[in-house]
Amino acid sequence: MEEKTIAVLTSGGDAPGMNAAIRAVVRAGIFKGFRVLGVRRGYNGLIKGDLVEMNLRSVSGIIHRGGTVLYTARSPEFNTEAGMQKAIQVCRAHNILGVVVIGGDGSFRGARDLSERGYNCVGIPGTIDNDIACSDYTIGFDTAMNTAMEAVDRLRDTSQSHDRCSVVEVMGRRAGWLALRCGIAVGATSILVPEAPFDLQKDVIDRMVENQRAGKQHFVVVVAEGVGNVSEIAKEIQTRTGIESRATVLGHIQRGGSPTVTDRVVASQMGYHAVELLSKGIGNRVVAMKADKVVDYNISEALQMKKPFDFNLYQIAHDISI
Ligand SMILES: Nc1ncnc2c1ncn2[C@@H]1O[C@H](COP(=O)(O)OP(=O)(O)OP(=O)(O)O)[C@@H](O)[C@H]1O
Ligand SMILES: O=P(O)(O)OC[C@H]1O[C@](O)(CO)[C@@H](O)[C@@H]1O
Ligand SMILES: [Mg+2]
């Protein structure tokens, strides 16, 4: 009798906690009697057949490590019918009946397409952006927030010593979740996110001047990547307020590092749940966290959902930062 085989891959930007998810998938898979294959470098590995046999020990000592031991990639080829067909041939050749895809929304589109062609896929939200609409939480978000917060705490030390304004860019091309929470945690004077329109004069400059009159001498402005160029924003702030302003881009530092407890635990729960679905012959699902419960959704439905930005928290940040 042929062995039942499942595969696991990581795709899109890496996120701390992806390794914990891989570990859970491999261990749960073996526990449920599957042969488990690791696919290297996302969908590129599925196209090329870059597969590695996973056993209980191949995921030892990785739960605390950032990045992904399976490597990750963005694969334009998988987005084409020819690329998809190559991947299907590889799945067929290795008798793969299901694939766990750990990644973001783009990766889930690939998982949906593969499911529609007969290969059960289950997505696990792994991205520091927390921008998966169907899930309250995405693996990597907590670690990234803490990394960004610690970095801005350090910036604050120097901006305080020099009576400066620190304009800090945190990651998030289309999502301001990281900026919002990090901004509150560091007591930023202003937080700029792509979801909320802003007026530089009213929402940043006037607030700084008002705060300065009340005795504040240093400032932190947190800006999400998608909002615009932080060097230009810093220059504009300096010109209009006369307060010396410096820009810092935190960049990929936010994607690395050892995952927090939250990321390790959520990754373990989601990995286990994904394997449970596959073991019941269920695919075309995204695992999600809703009100502290692990649930799952149809991928197409999940991709159509909208995640309303937390304007209430945004307002709180605004009101308590004067
Ligand atoms: N519409 C699609 N159809 C098939 N595959 C897709 C599609 N969109 C994306 N993919 C595949 O998923 C990969 C990852 O997508 P993307 O680069 O958008 O990252 P992501 O998973 O959204 O993660 P993040 O945005 O957090 O970095 C793409 O390189 C591609 O291989
Ligand atoms: O590392 P790359 O490919 O430049 O992608 C950067 C993007 O990926 C993310 O880190 C999400 O994975 C976004 O916050 C950021 O905009
Ligand atoms: Mg994405």
UniProtKB/TrEMBL annotation:
The keyword Metal-binding is annotated on this UniProt entry: yes
Pathway: Carbohydrate degradation; glycolysis; D-glyceraldehyde 3-phosphate and glycerone phosphate from D-glucose: step 3/4
Annotated residues for binding of substrate: T127, I128, D129, R164, M171, G172, R173, E225, R246, H252, I253, Q254, R255
GO biological process: canonical glycolysis; fructose 1,6-bisphosphate metabolic process; fructose 6-phosphate metabolic process
Family: Belongs to the phosphofructokinase type A (PFKA) family. ATP-dependent PFK group I subfamily. Prokaryotic clade 'B1' sub-subfamily.
Oligomeric form and interacting partners: Homotetramer.
Protein name (Swiss-Prot/TrEMBL): ATP-dependent 6-phosphofructokinase
Organism: Solibaculum mannosilyticum
